[in-house]
Design a protein that fits this description.
Number of strands: 0
CATH class: Mainly Alpha
Helix content: over 70%
CATH superfamily: CDP-alcohol phosphotransferase transmembrane (TM) domain
Number of helices: 7
Structural class: mainly alpha
Number of domains: 1
Radius of gyration: 18 Å
Distance between the termini: 39 Å
Order of helices and strands: HHHHHHH
CATH topology: Four Helix Bundle (Hemerythrin (Met), subunit A)
């Protein structure tokens, strides 16, 4: 059996480790272990590129990996936003988590439908920028929970809030880009 056809190849193992790390992070946030949650999130999100890079470089792309990797990406970021909503001083509000989760669900449904039709609906730069801004918002939110008292107004809170708003605007913008792209592909 070649590595390409192996479901248990290194890229898929990395993706599964990222899934486990996300679950650990989801336990650390409500336990108020914000610095540990930040470190786990940083490793889980920071290695996102590694599984895809490895799969392409060593010709280990699998159908499971094409499904599992984007799922884990969405699981990590949506879960982080949802768990941070429960932290009163995180800067993330419930409606923001709804925007993030809704956009991810919509794009996933559109991608699944279009790929069944044979269309290429791979990630766009707007989606990659969105993910970077969302990761920045989560990291800064966790940092502020660890190092800032609720009554403080400081550069960290201002930077956190800027990243949160940029991530929400980018989430909406990239969702619109994907919708227009889907409409264009459906008309062809």
């Amino acid at each position: 059996m070649t590595q390409k056809s192996s479901v248990f190849n290194i890229p898929n193992q990395i993706t599964c480790i990222r899934l486990i790390l996300a679950c650990i992070m989801f336990g650390l946030i409500p336990a108020k272990c914000h610095l540990a949650a930040l470190l786990v999130f940083a490793v889980a999100a920071g290695t996102d590129w590694l599984d895809g890079y490895w799969a392409r470089k060593y010709n280990q792309v699998t159908q499971l990996g094409r499904i599992l990797d984007p799922f884990v990406d969405k699981f990590i970021i949506c879960g982080a936003f949802v768990f941070l909503v429960a932290e009163p001083d995180s800067g993330i509000r419930a409606w923001m988590a709804v925007v993030v989760v809704s956009r991810e669900l919509l794009v996933t449904v559109i991608r699944g439908f279009l790929e069944q039709q044979g269309a290429d609906f791979s990630a766009q730069w707007s989606g990659k920028l969105k993910m970077v801004l969302q990761c920045g918002a989560v990291i800064l939110s966790l940092l502020s929970l660890k190092y800032v008292s609720p009554d403080d107004t400081c550069w960290l809170c201002l930077t956190r809030d800027l990243f949160i708003w940029l991530s929400i605007l980018s989430t909406l913008q990239s969702g619109i880009v994907y919708i227009f792209r889907a409409v264009r592909l459906l008309r062809e």
